[in-house]
Specification:
The chain is an alpha/beta fold and 490 residues long. The chain has helices spanning 22-25, 29-46, 66-78, 98-101, 124-127, 134-145, 165-184, 206-213, 222-230, 234-247, 264-283, 299-304, 308-315, 327-338, 444-453, 468-476; strands at 11-17, 50-52, 62-63, 83-88, 108-115, 152-159, 162-163, 188-193, 216-220, 249-250, 259-260, 288-292, 320-322, 344-351, 356-361, 375-379, 389-393, 399-408, 414-424, 434-439, 460-464, 481-485. Helix 7 crosses helix 16 (468-476), helix 9 packs across helix 11 and helix 10 (234-247) packs across helix 11. The relative contact order is 0.11.
Length: 490
């Protein structure tokens, strides 16, 4: 059985456009424009995108007539691109390509540049091929008048095959947006059990997820999972224990009274539950799942309370799983994972003395973002939940990190809420849960207030890197989704 979702590359199409009246006037310029566009396509590939190339009947990528533009637009739509870049390295009348832009059926990013030159000594022929803002300004206006609001307008300095750092940063972020858009397509999010009783911020409407992200929410039954667990073979359980032994370090009990020595029976049972969980994911083609279930001294309780190890192994293979039936945080985890930043299920406390957030939870955790082998500790209780067993802890890599929440307002509109911080070493609570010390350059009390006022649930996705720029761009092209950044301040 092969479990895991490989991070998918977003598909990018580039309309390399030109002003055909220039070709007889400025010999060689058509060739230069095509070459410039191909350099931009190489940048997209360096940034991780899959570039889908359109070729006209003459064997080039040049689009300089409405007919070619229309043909290119249909070609890109047929190839299901996620983002269309209209590349404008010099002036071109907007009517030459707009009819094609109407066909692509995906977000459009306008791209322009300016090559630095000696203003007083550059000829008309040379200057007309060095780029500038005029054509991109016209493009933005024309697209809006035709009912297409560009997702972005990226403009910067170009030198040879390289662009300015802000330009390349923006393109890199858009390529990661393309990855997320690609991952949403056809994704199945499982929902099993019910929300944790009384956690009103966890409740969700499955239809709004289909409306806003294009994913399908599939209702799953505990009896299916329990059947997979009960029918797990000895060989499957042994293989899973071997995987656990290769992945985790087993810890002794700590001074916290809730942590206990690890029993072999708990390891065996966690492995058996993990085998069943793998089959549930595989047989339902799941990209993600939110779950929570309480039983009363029965098989459902024993299984539901021992999924942490299996969940963490799956999360680390690209399958987002969230406890307490938190589908919103499940979507946040899936999103940060698909942009390449990982995603652990988390909530947070604070350490006033050092002005840091203590970000953590009992899992599921994404061990891809750990700086060492994750650990397993025995727990006699699960902090407000039924059951007992083993729990996963891990140490986040130091450096830039982001916490990303997803909430929904009274009208059903989603909101990604992001805050950037720095992961640092230091003392952590010893209660069997993972914690990360997240330093913010601001007053921690004010941050707590601002984070709550932004509309967050009490959970979030913990991921590597500073990703608010990516999430803001992503939100701008999703229907019924907005973005709010929480910035620390004094």
């Amino acid at each position: 059985m092969s479990i895991g979702k490989v991070k998918q590359k977003g598909k990018a199409g580039v309309m390399i456009v030109g002003h055909k009246e220039y070709w007889p006037q400025f010999p060689g310029q058509r060739k230069d424009v095509i070459a410039s566009g191909e350099i931009f396509e190489k940048l997209l590939e360096r940034c991780g995108a899959e570039v889908v190339r359109y070729y006209a009947s003459d064997g080039t990528q040049m689009i300089d007539t409405p007919e070619k533009a229309f043909e290119a637009g249909i070609f890109f739509k047929r190839n299901d691109i996620d983002l269309c870049y209209i590349y404008l390295p010099n002036y071109v009348a907007s009517g030459r390509y707009l009819i094609g832009a109407k066909q692509v059926c995906c977000p459009i990013v306008l791209v322009g540049h300016q090559v630095q030159y000696e203003v007083g000594s550059t000829t008309v022929a040379e200057g007309s091929s060095l780029g500038g803002p005029c054509c991109v300004t016209e493009a933005y206006n024309a697209l809006e008048r035709c009912g297409i609001t560009p997702a972005d307008f990226v403009f910067g300095r170009k030198s040879g095959e390289w662009y300015s750092a802000p330009f390349e940063k923006a393109i890199t972020e858009w390529c990661r947006v393309g990855d997320a858009l690609r991952a949403y397509k056809g994704a199945i999010f499982g929902h099993m059990g019910h929300s944790y009783e009384g956690m009103l911020d966890m409740n969700f409407d499955p239809t709004t997820f289909t409306r806003s992200f294009g994913v399908h929410v599939k209702m799953l039954e505990m009896c299916e999972l329990v059947d997979y667990v009960k029918t797990a073979t000895a060989g499957e359980i042994k293989d899973k224990i071997d995987e656990m032994n290769e992945t985790f370090v087993y810890l002794d009990a700590s001074y916290d009274p809730t942590t206990v020595p690890i029993a072999q029976k708990d390891i065996d049972w966690a492995a058996q539950c993990a085998v069943g969980l793998d089959k549930l994911v595989e047989n339902n083609n799941l990209s993600a799942m939110a779950y929570y279930y309480e039983g009363l001294d029965n098989d459902y309780e024993r299984v539901a309370s021992n999924l942490i190890v299996g969940n963490s192994l799956l999360v680390s293979k690209g399958i987002a799983l969230a406890g307490e039936s938190d589908m919103k945080t499940c979507m946040a985890m899936f999103t940060t994972s698909m942009i390449g930043a990982g995603g652990s299920f988390a909530e947070y406390g604070i350490d006033f003395a050092d002005n840091v957030m203590l970000v953590g939870h009992d899992g599921p955790h994404d061990i891809r973002i750990s700086d060492a082998n994750p650990t397993i500790r025995g727990l006699s209780l699960y902090h407000g939940k039924r059951g007992h067993g083993i729990s996963v802890e891990f140490s986040l890599q130091t450096g830039p990190m982001t916490v990303l929440g997803l909430s929904v307002d009274i009208n059903g509109k989603f909101r990604f809420i992001g805050a950037e911080a720095e992961s640092q070493r230091g003392p952590l609570p010893q209660n069997g849960n993972t914690y990360t010390r997240a330093h913010i350059d601001g007053d921690i009390s004010k941050f707590v207030v601002d984070w709550a006022k932004a509309g967050n649930t009490h959970h979030m996705s913990l991921c590597l890197g500073h990703n608010n720029g990516v999430i803001e761009k992503l939100s701008s092209v999703l229907p019924y989704v907005e973005f709010r950044e929480v910035k620390p301040s004094w």
